[in-house]
Amino acid sequence: MDSQDNKRKWKNRDFTSSLEFAITGIFTSIKEERNMRKHALSALVAMLAGLVFRISATEWLFLLLSITLVIAFEIMNSAIENVVDLASNYHFSMLAKNAKDMAAGAVLVVSGFALVTGSIIFVPKFWALVFG
Q1: Is residue 7 annotated as involved in ligand binding?
Q2: Which residues are named in the active-site annotation (predicted)?
Q3: Is 81 annotated for ligand binding?
Q4: Are 22 and 72 in contact, with CB atoms under 8 Å apart?
Q5: pLDDT tens, position by position, 80-93
Q6: What is d(CA 31, CA 33) in angstroms, rounded to the nearest whole number?
Q7: 21, 41, 45, 107 - which has most CB atoms within 10 Å?
Q8: How far is it, in rounded angstroms, from Cα 83 to Cα 74?
Q9: What is the Cα 28 distance to its own chain's centre?
């Protein structure tokens, strides 16, 4: 098999194939990554809180943006970790460590954004419910 045939083998043939690969990637990250399951559970709790507190459309937009960013960054972090492990043959490399640490740092940054966003949306509502 020449390299041109090999390229075609892995190339997405159509939109449906591309979509199937992407969905498989999402399910793989949920199945194999502990932190992704935690993020998914947190997202579910946040959305249920949004329904309970009847948040506004603007608040929903920020809540969904936060959830989407955290999940997307966690998927990218996991992908980067897998590629770095593959490329480094599981041997220690300072460059590999730096790449993995930076990817994890990106998840931390967007998680901080999500925490602040959730606090701005839900703390006043919870406060009014408890002390109002």
Answers
A1: no
A2: 74 (proton acceptor)
A3: yes
A4: no
A5: 999 999 999 878 89
A6: 6
A7: 107
A8: 14
A9: 12
